[in-house]
Amino acid sequence: MNLDELYQEVILDHYKRPRGAGLREPYEGESHQVNPTCGDEITLRVHVEGDKVADVSYDNVGCSISKASASVMYELVNGATVDDALAKLAEFTELMNSKGQSEGDEESLEDAVAFAGVSKYPMRVKCALLGWKAFQDALIRAEASSGRTNA
Amino acid sequence: MEAASKLDVEAIRADFPILQRRIGDKPLAYLDSAATSQKPVQVVEAMRRFTDHSNANISRSVHTLGAEATEAYEGARAKVAAFIGAPSPDEVVFTKNSTESINLMAYAFQNAAFDPAADPRFKLGPGDEVVVTEMEHHANLIPWQQLCLRTGATLKWIGITDDGRLDLESLDEVITERCKVVSFVHVANLLGTVNPTSPITRRAREVGALVGLDASQSVPHLPVDVTELGVDFIAFTGHKMLGPTGIGVLWAKADLLAAMPPFLTGGSMIKTVTMERTTFADAPAKFEAGTPPIAEAVGLAAAVDYLDKLGMANVRAYEKELAGYMLERLETVEGLEIIGPRVPIGRSATVSFTFEGVHPHDVGQILDAEGIAVRVGHHCAKPTCERFGVNATTRASGYLYNTHEEIDRLVEALGQVRKVFG
Ligand SMILES: Cc1ncc(COP(=O)(O)O)c(C=O)c1O
């Protein structure tokens, strides 16, 4: 097994210096997700302004893959339009389900292509998707409560 | 060391083909036997011989194969009974695993709640109490917890000290006159603690409660004699004791089994049946509805033979020494913190630890790259994790086929973890 492929510099960097970490207000949707097999957890909030993801904030415990993935996701979706963010979600999910057959499009996924290697490790794919799952869920909740803010 | 030398580990290893495997270009060091043990050729061959030669359903046919299969299955029961010192093979119920065995017990209480004529020992309601410990595998927690939620009884538990031992000081407070059943783990799967049984059984007797053991991690590793232990029931599972998956055991005293309502119902567990009602067979058949795991029982019997031949006292002595070595070596790793007892007394060769803030998933991944198989996560003991303020641990667990060299490799590989994440 090639560990370098899994633990790429980019991933370790995001793990050690997570971007956008911490829970912030205001937000309209909040999601709590757990990975029942390993106990990893994330609480994630989404603040939507108009058609834009105005802030994504989160607090998580977990392995390097799940923490780095949340950090990379923050960079990708924060400030993007909701539609673009959902497109990234779909693209990243597809990459994770590629079983090592895809390299990912660096143009659109940026640092997240570093996770291509993770897709070969079925036990770790869930780690990489945990934050994204929380984002998707928080977004749904934000839309459900649209107009109202919890701040 | 004298006792340890009674196991010829090299010869034992030769019986386990999987131990020759390589993971990438590294030899496998299998340190995850607490999750499931590996199986010697003797077990696989016994199952194969049975399947190739005698396979048939049991207790249903007069043909030769049917008779052979029945004999093999009942022979396995007798072998298991002898292995745990049970007074009679009829006290051994075959199940799917420990989890089912414990559910079978818990459902005896739940089903008794609907039966006005049920034995009072199984009557549970508001005001009654059920006691477990804080170091249970979920298998010996959730069935009792749910039973209490459904019957209105109260679940109580014995806590854990900072050293990873049961807090026996609190015993008299936790186990009171209201207690109907105490079910506790014999050897804890996350902490590696070997619990003393007599203070708990004594207290349970004092208050007239039934008492049972989750013996999933003890029967594979140390001599277990149910008569000596003085408990009412124990549960264990084939796949952790060199046997196949798909078979577990519930042992319970004959008079309890006689009083317990069945858990699963259907074929093979009846005396007579009409469209309106059914009378049940005597135990153990009463608790073995449907076609049981026959080939698996044959495999389990072969595993019992294997362990018997080595001698459980020898296995225990070897693993005690191995546990000492694991603790001693792991303690030298900077940044590593053992969760559970730190001395090899009242302890199994299962050692959980945290490491320098590196998540166990990452530790496990890097160890895997070195060919070392450990388990990472909460080990189905979330409350225990919570007690020690951790989300997950890395757990190395040894068995009769593990060597000092494998422990050395584990310790060395932890250095690699530091290199990647340091
Ligand atoms: C202490 C303990 N109890 C119960 C179980 C459950 O065993 P099984 O999954 O075979 O039912 C295990 C194994 O994971 C265990 O370690």
TrEMBL record, chain A:
Residues 7-127 form the NIF system FeS cluster assembly NifU N-terminal domain. InterPro entries: NIF_FeS_clus_asmbl_NifU_N. It holds the Pfam family NifU_N. This is SUF system NifU family Fe-S cluster assembly protein. It comes from Glycomyces niveus.
UniProtKB/TrEMBL annotation, chain B:
It catalyses: (sulfur carrier)-H + L-cysteine = (sulfur carrier)-SH + L-alanine. Residues 30-410 form the Aminotransferase class V domain. It is an enzyme of class 2 (transferase). SUPFAM superfamilies: PLP-dependent transferases. Pfam families: Aminotran_5 (PF00266). Its EC number is 2.8.1.7. InterPro entries: Aminotrans_V_dom, Aminotrans_V_PyrdxlP_BS, Cys_dSase_SufS, PyrdxlP-dep_Trfase, PyrdxlP-dep_Trfase_major, PyrdxlP-dep_Trfase_small. PROSITE patterns: AA_TRANSFER_CLASS_5. Keywords: Pyridoxal phosphate, Transferase. The keyword Cell cycle does not apply. It comes from the Bacteria. Its cofactor is pyridoxal 5'-phosphate. NCBIfam families: sufS. Catalyzes the removal of elemental sulfur and selenium atoms from L-cysteine, L-cystine, L-selenocysteine, and L-selenocystine to produce L-alanine. Belongs to the class-V pyridoxal-phosphate-dependent aminotransferase family. Csd subfamily. This is Cysteine desulfurase. It comes from Glycomyces niveus.
